[in-house]
């Protein structure tokens, strides 16, 4: 999952397994944050972590769920978040491994 940097608004993305257990929280704001590329894998995944991955997140289930919340204080911040949200991307692992 690609998480871009964000403007002045604050946002949190929670990644959970299918049991509802929170695996991690990714926060981003204009002052700080954890923009980057996150590899979400099942507990049995044994592949190599490709270059460019910020963090590997292991799920106890084969599927994971992502929840996001955004705090906006003005119309300007809302437009920034809309643009930010359009940059979030679920990118297949093969895009990093070139199909290996």
- Helical proportion? 10-25%
Helix segment tally: 2
- Low-pLDDT stretches are none
Over the alpha carbons, how many angstroms does the gyration radius reach?
14 Å
Order of helices and strands: EEEEEEHH
Q: Write down how many β-strands occur, each being a DSSP E stretch of 2 or more residues.
A: 6
Strand content: 35-45%
User: Residue-averaged pLDDT, rounded?
Assistant: 81
Query: What does the overall shape look like?
Result: globular
Main sheet: strand order: 1-4-5
Q: Which structural class should the secondary elements be placed in?
A: alpha+beta
Q: Major beta sheet, specifics?
A: 3 strands, mixed
Question: Can you tell me about this structure?
Answer:
- The chain is α+β, with helices and mostly antiparallel strands and 100 residues long.
- It contains two helices and six strands.
- Strands 1-4-5 form a three-stranded mixed beta sheet, with no helix packed on it. A three-stranded antiparallel beta sheet has the order 3-2-6, with no helix packed on it.
- The longest helix has 13 residues, at 75-87.
- The chain is globular, with a radius of gyration of 14 Å.
Quick recap:
The protein is an alpha+beta fold and 100 residues long.
């Amino acid at each position: 999952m690609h998480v871009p940097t964000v403007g002045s608004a604050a946002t949190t993305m929670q990644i959970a397994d299918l049991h509802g257990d929170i695996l991690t929280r990714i926060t981003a704001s204009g002052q700080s944050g954890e923009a980057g590329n996150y590899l979400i894998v099942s507990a049995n995944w044994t592949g190599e972590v490709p270059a460019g991955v910020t963090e590997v997140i292991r799920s106890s289930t084969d599927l994971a769920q992502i929840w996001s919340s955004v705090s906006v204080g003005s119309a300007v911040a809302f437009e920034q978040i809309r643009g930010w949200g359009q940059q979030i991307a679920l990118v297949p692992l093969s895009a990093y491994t070139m199909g290996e």
